[in-house]
Amino acid sequence: MTCPIGLFVDGALAVEREVPEQVVLRLRFPTCFYEARAPREAIHRAGIAIASGGVPDPADEELLNRWTARHRARLVLTGGQARWHLPEADPVRAARAVVALDAVATLGGHVDGVIKRCEQRTCGGLFVDTSRGRRRRWCSMATCGNKMKKANLKAARDEAEAGEPAG
Q1: Would you say the C-alpha torsion 68, 12, 118, 45 has a positive or negative sign?
Q2: Which residues are CB-contacts of 148 (< 8 A; sequence separation ≥ 6)?
């Protein structure tokens, strides 16, 4: 059985994959979370650099490259779909290596879209803008986009009320 697992960066889903259930069970141990922090933060810093038009810090690139080198998982065709087969010896690290591989491919431009940072000021999440005009502004319209639109509407109403003569 497989379960979805995601890499979240500042509350926004950065990468999601289906992984075997035993990996999810092992992820409950705290050491796994501590070990996952460094690549997660490197992915986020690299994403911010790219979204800002810059290049990632070489140390972050090196860390991500080291994680991709740990990759012992392999892609297999099962039931007409590609699925990751993780080694039984250390499936948690192999799953993290798969996330690092996806992050490198995404940040390196191997996906259709542009890396952007959410414009909602308290979010800071990263996303890949695959919209036709590359005009997407928020990581999620349901959360950040809605907050921004509500705030803009409230500001417009407050401004309109302030501009009206007292009656």
Answers
A1: negative
A2: 119, 120, 137, 138
